[in-house]
Amino acid sequence: AQTVTQSQPEMSVQEAETVTLSCTYDTSESDYYLFWYKQPPSRQMILVIRQEAYKQQNATENRFSVNFQKAAKSFSLKISDSQLGDAAMYFCAMRYGGATNKLIFGTGTLLAVQP
Amino acid sequence: DADVTQTPRNRITKTGKRIMLECSQTKGHDRMYWYRQDPGLGLRLIYYSFDVKDINKGEISDGYSVSRQAQAKFSLSLESAIPNQTALYFCATSDFGTSGRFQETQYFGPGTRLLVL
Question: In this predicted model, what pLDDT tens digit does every residue of A64-87 receive, in sequence order?
Fold first, then answer.
């Protein structure tokens, strides 16, 4: 079975500081992808970053980067220079099922940014 | 204009009523999905469709049905709404990666908040 676990229901960070959100997953598949989605109060699900399992290099998108530890099945998100607009619910997700492209989501981490 | 739109954005209905949620996309994607979000549970897949003639059940399809009227339109129906179907519903789209590997990323609509009384 495929699972995605986010063990931090809530996190808080000071503006301009760095925060890391944790995610672990389990899958028996060799071809999978990992994602972080952001959900601000507007409810929109916004793609933050993606990581292909076959790539060893950690993905980076501006202030957002991941620490992908394949052997440990860990996929954490680091947000540098946190901004007030980063406050949101963050979901870790895993794409599995080959051509069926199914996504399974974690339960989310609510990030607060303190001014 | 938004690439993936959902109507209505909010809906209140009564137990036993039939309700349809609609999703339209201008991204030209073949694949469309319906998810449900409940507090503390993340998003769960209800149905997905890879083209107009293809419909597949997700992990929580009971009590729901879908219709893929065109490549750009994918509707979710609750034949007889019940209170535990109160949730936030998302439509998403994706296309097949062009690199030969499965590099699809799903793009989400703004969500429909449904309350069943």
Answer: 999 999 999 999 999 999 999 999
